[in-house]
Design brief:
Radius of gyration: 29 Å
Distance between the termini: 77 Å
Strand order of the largest sheet: 23-24-25-26-27-28-29-30
Number of helices: 30
Helix content: 25-40%
């Protein structure tokens, strides 16, 4: 009888063949990690022997094997019918008496009584192996109460080994059906129905970047997050600074969290839980606080260190005792298997009408006719190459998901099972679109792009795109550094895997535009705004303490994400360089920006920072940078000042930085100046008294040297950074910096567009060239060509 049941604290990772990966992992954590602060609810598990003896009972095993041997798993209708038949046989077959008694004794030993709520989870003996993600293949039952209901749930768990998705999965991953057994784990419930729960990964699920913990969270029981029924909050935490006990949250994204799963009236398999709406005021808050986020990340790192590999972890916060518990941990099986020496790039080569947006899964692009599927019974509608559009996919859909060229769902977050399966299948997916099934029509041709960052977009029609792969085992040496221009924090973890020497230009205005969207003055003077604008701003700043705290926090998140992605390499952050028309387009901006006929030559850069009307806004930027460098310990961040017209402005700005705690040289801080006005090159020695080097902005330098408006299409043909006059100024700037032993780089568009200009700059002895990510590899190989006279 003992052979049929074991307590969770009696098993570990050596017992996978007896209790499956999930239960073995729970036991391992209880026995090995409790002392390190990892809390796992206790319980017991049925063994593989119990399952196999149950199947031998009435010769069920022979019957099942014969039936499955005749099945064509590609025939979705036959798969559904066969799976249903097998599950029915299992449910109709009673447990052997010995197993029945063993369950009763284990429940009694657990202190079992009718009010004790337990979770009953499946654990397959071939599950959660590093090379086979069985995520969600079998059932989970929550809030089960009373012995009879527990036995019924274990029966259901046994039957779930023959779910359609599980049968199909085993066939496609080369597992023999009879080789896999099932263990049912019976575990005390965590009262997350009054708290929160979610999933976390010890790497970034999209890029495979291994220095972050990615956490999702929503109110109530965790199944809504796992299934993708809710759009959760998301957080990224940076492991290296968390180890130093520094604030390490890089990103916070608020999910809609419209529903939550709570305990139902009865603890049976059919009415143990129910889904209810979350009050609007609760949706507008983060479901866990920063302390919870950092604590969860620390727990995740302890678990990862113990297992020695990236992990996929389910967690729950008990609303009664406030404690954080781990209810599942398994190896992450998609990104950790990626061959990181191969860089894969998808790029849209034409633009189109955006039909809808959501969270992107993966970085690929797919196109095809829309096929709206309401439920599983319509699965056979999907033909190879269709774009599957539905309210919410779950692992039951796996047999049909692999036929699709792309997937779009109304609901779901980036850690739901559907997202995991989509990544594993290499299919682009956009989740959490809200109303995709209403906005798209059956048969409509669309292009699904997940190649543009966190936001996935569905475009009208079939758009052309490029798919490139580059193997980057090693790059040929160059006499200078190749850095990158990266403005979008969404892509930072992705871009860091390209060969690079850091970020030569991180544009703060990109962060302001993308992550904030509100004029800083409208936030500073929030109380003076009219009611309609106030409501708009309140929606945007939900979850943050105040309008000003929102602005600073979002700048910190954007900057720290870029800094962490490339650490310890330099990340040169250019302070905001919006023109008045661009600031005017931000929410609330029209009231604060004057109309200028040529904003490109107007109120921008250093002039703006030192002006009384903008100084407060600039001070918020300084506050954010100081937080990233001094508090979060990301001292690889350097400051760059754009558009400094006079030497007098240079002195004023550097003094203003110092007033705000950003002193040159302090804590290793370098302050770089954009060299983009002819006066900067002509008076380089004087400007360099106040700065630690130059970064050449070839776009503005060309515009102002040749006297042309780069926004004007009429004279666009004259715009060329390789013009002799421009080169003369470039040479002067390079020479002045080299003479003083100071940094000299270029971050303008020129070298990205013209590899021959990059080669000329190399010959001049420039320190670094900062390129757009999509031109790094091509330019690098061009410059390293052995036929190059420079070598």
């Amino acid at each position: 009888m003992q052979d049929y049941i074991v307590r969770l604290d009696q098993v570990g990772m050596d017992d996978i063949e007896q209790v499956g990966g999930k239960n073995a992992s729970l036991g391992e954590m209880i026995s090995e990690l409790s002392g390190a602060g990892v809390k796992v609810p206790g319980g017991f598990a049925t063994t593989a022997s119990a399952f196999r003896d149950f199947l031998k009972y009435n010769k069920l095993d022979q019957k099942i094997s014969e039936t499955l041997a005749q099945l064509d798993p590609e025939d979705v209708n036959a798969l559904a019918a066969t799976g249903s038949q097998v599950r029915q046989w299992i449910l109709e077959t009673p447990f052997p008496a010995a197993l029945d008694k063993a369950i009763e004794k284990a429940y009694s030993d657990m202190g079992g009584h009718d009010d004790l709520a337990v979770a009953i989870r499946s654990s397959a003996t071939a599950e959660d192996l590093p090379d086979a993600s069985f995520a969600g293949q079998q059932e989970t039952f929550l809030n089960i109460r009373g012995l009879d209901n527990i036995k019924a749930a274990i029966h259901e768990v046994f039957a779930s080994l023959y779910n359609d998705r599980a049968i199909s999965y085993r066939v496609h991953h080369g597992f023999e059906h009879h080789e896999v057994a099932l263990s049912a784990g019976v575990q005390r419930m965590v009262r997350s129905e009054t708290g929160a729960s979610g999933v976390m990964f010890t790497l970034d699920t999209e890029s495979g970047f291994q220095h972050v913990v990615f956490i999702t969270s929503a109110y109530g029981l965790g199944e809504t997050v796992v299934q993708g029924a809710v759009n959760p909050d998301e957080f990224y935490v940076y492991k290296p600074t968390l180890r130093q006990d520094a604030p390490a949250i890089l990103r916070r994204s608020m999910g809609s969290k419209a529903i939550k799963m709570v305990y139902g009236a009865e603890g049976t398999t059919h009415s143990a839980v129910e889904t209810v709406s979350v009050p609007v005021e609760e949706r507008m808050k983060f479901s866990i606080n920063d302390d919870d986020v950092q604590s969860l990340a620390k727990i995740a790192m302890i678990i990862e260190q113990h297992y020695g590999r990236p992990m996929d972890i389910e967690w729950a916060k008990d609303g009664d005792d406030g404690e954080l518990y781990i209810v599942q941990a398994r190896p992450e099986t998609v990104k950790s298997r990626d061959k990181t020496t191969v860089i894969e790039r998808y790029l849209l080569t034409e633009t189109g009408n955006v039909l809808l947006e959501g969270r992107s899964i993966g970085h690929r692009i797919g196109s095809g006719p829309v096929r709206i599927v309401e439920n599983l019974s319509d699965m056979d509608k999907i033909q190879p190459g269709d774009v599957l559009v539905t309210d919410m996919t779950d692992p039951d859909w796996e047999p049909v998901m692999k036929r699709s060229s792309a997937i779009i769902t109304n609901r779901g977050g980036r850690t739901c099972h559907a997202a995991i399966i989509a990544r594993e299948l290499g299919i682009p997916a956009i989740v959490g679109c809200g109303d995709a099934t209403e906005r798209l029509t059956d048969g409509q041709e669309v292009t699904v792009s997940c190649a543009e960052g966190d936001t996935g977009r569905a475009y009208e029609g079939r758009l052309d795109f490029e798919h490139q792969t580059n193997k980057v085992d090693s790059m040929p040496p160059l006499p200078f550094d190749i850095m990158m221009n990266v403005g979008n924090p969404d892509r930072a973890f992705d871009f860091q895997s390209l060969p690079n020497a850091g970020v030569g230009l991180a544009r703060l205005e990109f962060i302001i535009n993308r992550m904030i969207g509100i004029h800083p003055k409208a936030l500073i003077e929030f109380d003076q705004q009219e009611d309609g604008l106030k409501r708009t701003i309140e929606r945007r700043i939900a979850g943050y303490a105040s309008p000003i705290e929102f602005y600073v926090a979002k700048l910190v998140e954007g900057i720290s994400t870029l800094a962490a992605a490339f650490y310890p390499k330099k990340v040169i952050v250019r302070m905001s360089d919006f023109k008045s028309n661009e600031y005017g387009h931000l929410i609330g901006g029209a009231a604060y920006e004057a109309h200028e006929e040529n904003p490109m030559l107007g109120f921008r850069g250093a002039s703006r920072y030192i002006a009384e009307s903008f100084r407060q806004c600039f001070e918020l930027e300084c506050r954010a940078l100081k937080q990233v460098r001094d508090v979060m310990k990301l001292t690889n961040v350097e400051v760059m000042i754009p558009f400094v017209r006079t030497v007098g402005e240079a002195k004023q700005v550097v003094d203003l930085l110092a007033e705000n705690g950003l002193n040159r040289g302090e804590n290793g801080l370098r302050v770089i100046m954009m060299c983009e006005i002819p006066s900067n090159a002509l008076l380089a020695d004087q400007f360099l008294e106040y700065f630690d080097g130059f970064s050449i902005g070839s776009n503005d330098l060309t515009q102002l040297t040749l006297g042309l408006d780069r926004d004007s299409g009429v004279i666009a043909h004259l715009f060329d950074e390789r013009n002799d006059a421009v080169r003369k100024l470039l040479a002067m700037a390079i020479e002045a910096c080299k003479a003083q032993g100071k940094y000299i780089g270029i971050c303008g568009q020129g070298p990205s567009d013209h590899p021959d200009l990059a080669k000329w700059l190399m010959e001049q002895g420039i320190s670094s060239v900062s390129l757009n990510p999509d031109s790094v590899l091509d330019t690098w190989f061009f410059l390293a060509n052995e036929d190059n006279p420079a070598h």
